Amino acid sequence: MQHWPWYLLIDESFIGLHGVRGDLVERAWKVRARINQWIGIPCGIGIATTKTLAKLANHIAKTAERKPGSYPDELATVCDLSRLGEDLLREVMTSTDVGEVWGIGRQINTQLKSRGVTSVQDFVDLPSSVVRGTWGVVLERTWRELRGEACIELSDVPSPKKQIACTRSFGQPVTGLTELREAISEFTSRAAEKLRKQRHLAGQVLVFARTSPFRDGPRFSKSVVVPLVRPSADTTELANAAVMGLRSIYAPGFQLAKAGVMLLDLVPDTFVQGALDWGEPTTEQRDRSRLMHAMDRVNDRFGKRTVLLGSSGLSQGADTWGMRQVRRTPCYTTKWGETPVARA
After folding, report:
1. Is residue 154 situated within a structural domain?
2. For 189-216, what is each residue's pLDDT tens digit?
3. What SS3 string covers 137-177?
4. Can you give the pTM of this predicted structure?
5. Cβ-count burial of 150 within 10 angstroms (0-12 exposed, 13-18 middle, 19+ buried)?
6. Are 138 and 11 members of one domain?
């Protein structure tokens, strides 16, 4: 464990420390102060030699601050596990519940505790053969990370999503097919933008609608998957499939509270589905691809819904299917009208 710390976790953001020298705890305090000054959000910071240990250090930092006496005071707010001696580190891990380890879920936590493994140190003391033989190589990787062996790399680019969803709860119940169609078209447009940004195509579209489980009255909850003839990232094709699916499941007389769209069977946009009758993409298909990217650029520059499908409706949907957002945080840094004004 006496190695140079390679990872720092600020709440849920990992930062690699490869090549960084100097007093890391002092630097972490300065980073925390700047985040608090610029954004106004206090945070905990964990430093360690692996990502799993950094995550654990972050938990210790927060707990030591919120519950004085649970850990040594010097570990509050900013916790660097790489600085701890062997005895103190063992004491800290013994005081930490094994369920707090990143990668140990509720079911595995229950299984571990049924075997008498209640603390992080108990888990670390298990033989690797027992961990691998009982729970598999994934949990063994967590076990190795807790022992200071880095097994999870720091990735700068998130892996492409295997499915893309856009779902919303309505600001007020929706009963009509027209309003519901507008909402589904809008949700599909948002999902299609995300699909094109990660340079993928969708082979199927799932659409669903349901009533609120917390309100009295008739209940409704249905979904349908609509397969596409050819994988596509074209908003109009995806929206047509979603609306067709919506029409197949829609029933009048229900106060719908939520609906959504999910794009499935994603493949890279270089994927070509061969067929005897289709051949290569036509000029029209290539032009539509350029049109979709042009729509994305316009909306990125001038704001959402600057260019949209007619089926999404020309209003903002605030009076029908739009979200209520009564507790939305003001956009202090991006909208002049919501900038706070200080008066003497």
Report:
1. no
2. 999 999 999 999 999 999 999 999 888 8
3. HHHHHHHHHHCCCCCCCCCCCCCCCCCEEEEEEEEEEECCH
4. 0.55
5. middle
6. yes
